[in-house]
């Protein structure tokens, strides 16, 4: 099943996802230019991203159902086409409503992409490789963000708004062509997709996926770990570093590149961790959550601007949240049957984006309130108002942590009812790993036949 063709299919899917990430994150780089182009407030600019994420999150479960029915090829191609239309609209928009329409189309197309690409993994790769390939998918997709923070940002500043967004539309056209020509839903001989279901059967499928505690554990893991990095990359990170922290554009671009590089490099490590320590996945999620809270607290509690080394630490911690949130999809995969993976993955993928859109909107709202009351002293994106506005994240981190702990308890109760007890299973897995290590050491130390002769 892991023949070269499987890797070709995966590569085409990942390219489409890379393009989707570039489209998703492009507006975060253009936030300051958008404020001038549309003559908009901070809340209005945040509304662009909030509405995009609202469309994205709202479509996750319907897309999960549709990809289970129609397959990845149709959904990925359709998503790329919608994103191309959205960026074309945005390229020529000169008002808030026109720009919002473009971002809605981008959000709808983006919503159709990731779940559809992730669904290819268990169909084309062996179960033992699925966690690593899933992490590689997220890792390679982050290159799209690197495109938005370096070449897109350079083109935006050099050539202007319209040429920059037309370049993104052209990328979508290329993705549509490659997917239509080369992508296939499943290997030859794989059982056909399920036949069309009525609304009642579809509702039953969604309900069963939701009732599975492992799905909810994946949802709240994704909710808690991903949103802070999302709001940083998609909306408020660039103005926070540029205006509040006083960094120059080159340094900000370098920090965003560090964000992408960290997400890429840490992905395989999470994949190996999940494969080797399946009973410690939720512990890793909680560890990342704590690190995120501590990193933001260190930056926001300083009386003045943060030193560059501390901002680098913040960026690295936030970037780790991206591949860390992929653990949520592993919960969906391991606790649901194959015919319901798309639906369960859609439920999980709602989490981080719902949290992100809430946080992005609240941050913009708080910034506007502080500006209107005179607290900002005429600086809409000043350090003092940003310090207060960004603190709304701690509320969401706390809520997510509580829900993770509650869901994990439900999962362990379900496992115990099925005769699987966590502590003995962890001991057994540890013993198996120790035995494998000892066998490898023994094999390396044993003289071969030539030496014996």
Considering the chains and any ligands shown, give keywords for the structure.
453 residues; mainly alpha; Growth Hormone, Chain: A
Which structural category do the helix and sheet elements fall into?
Answer: mainly alpha
Might you state the CATH topology name? Growth Hormone, Chain: A
Q: Total domains, how many?
A: 1
Shape: globular
Short description:
It contains 21 helices and no strands.
SSE order and pairing:
Layout: H1 4-29, H2 31-37, H3 42-70, H4 72-92, H5 96-111, H6 114-124, H7 130-141, H8 143-149, H9 151-159, H10 161-182, H11 199-211, H12 213-244, H13 249-276, H14 281-300, H15 308-325, H16 327-335, H17 341-372, H18 383-389, H19 393-417, H20 422-445, H21 449-452
Helix pairs in contact: 1-4, 1-5, 1-6, 1-7, 1-8, 1-10, 1-12, 3-4, 3-5, 3-17, 4-5, 4-6, 4-10, 6-7, 6-17, 7-13, 8-9, 8-13, 9-10, 12-13, 12-14, 12-15, 12-16, 12-17, 12-19, 13-15, 14-15, 14-19, 16-17, 17-18
């Amino acid at each position: 099943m892991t023949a070269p063709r499987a890797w070709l299919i995966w590569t085409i899917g990942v390219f489409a996802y890379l393009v989707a990430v570039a489209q998703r994150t492009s507006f975060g780089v253009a936030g300051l230019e958008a404020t001038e182009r549309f003559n908009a407030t901070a809340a209005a600019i945040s509304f662009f991203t909030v509405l995009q994420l609202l469309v994205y999150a709202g479509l996750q479960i319907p897309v999960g159902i549709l990809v289970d029915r129609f397959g990845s090829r149709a959904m990925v191609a359709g998503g790329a086409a919608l994103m191309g239309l959205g960026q074309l609209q945005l390229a020529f928009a000169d008002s808030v409503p026109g720009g919002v329409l473009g971002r809605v189309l981008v959000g709808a197309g983006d919503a159709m992409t990731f779940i559809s690409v992730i669904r290819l993994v268990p169909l084309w790769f062996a179960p033992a490789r699925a966690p690593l390939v899933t992490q590689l998918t997220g890792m390679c997709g982050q290159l799209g963000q690197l495109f938005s923070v370096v070449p897109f940002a350079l083109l935006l500043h050099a050539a202007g708004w319209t040429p920059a967004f037309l370049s993104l539309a052209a990328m979508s056209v290329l993705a549509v062509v490659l997917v239509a020509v080369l992508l296939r839903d499943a290997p030859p001989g794989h059982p056909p997709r399920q036949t069309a279901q009525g609304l009642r059967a579809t509702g039953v499928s969604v309900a069963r996926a939701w009732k599975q505690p492992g799905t909810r554990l994946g949802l709240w893991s994704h909710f808690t770990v991903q949103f802070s990095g999302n709001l940083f990359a998609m909306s408020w990170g660039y103005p926070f570093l540029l205006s509040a922290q006083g960094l120059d554009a080159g340094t900000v671009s370098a920090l965003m590149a560090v964000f992408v590089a960290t997400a890429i490099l840490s992905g395989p490590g999470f994949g190996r961790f999940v494969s080797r320590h399946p009973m410690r996945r939720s512990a890793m999620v909680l560890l990342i959550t704590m690190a995120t809270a501590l990193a933001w607290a260190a930056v926001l509690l300083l009386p003045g601007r943060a030193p560059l080394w501390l901002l680098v630490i913040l960026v690295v911690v936030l970037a780790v949240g991206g591949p860390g949130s992929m653990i949520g999809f592993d919960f969906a995969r391991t606790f649901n049957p194959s015919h319901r993976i798309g639906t369960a993955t859609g439920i999980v993928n709602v989490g981080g984006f719902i949290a992100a859109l809430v946080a992005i909107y609240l941050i913009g709202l708080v910034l506007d309130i502080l500006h209107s009351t005179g607290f900002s002293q005429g600086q809409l994106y000043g350090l003092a108002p940003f310090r207060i506005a960004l603190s709304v994240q701690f509320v969401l981190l706390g809520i997510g942590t509580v829900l993770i702990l509650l869901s994990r308890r439900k999962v362990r109760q379900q496992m115990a009812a099925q005769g699987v007890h966590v502590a003995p299973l962890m001991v057994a897995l540890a013993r198996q790993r120790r035995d494998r290590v000892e066998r490898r050491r023994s094999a390396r130390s044993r003289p071969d036949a030539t030496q014996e002769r």
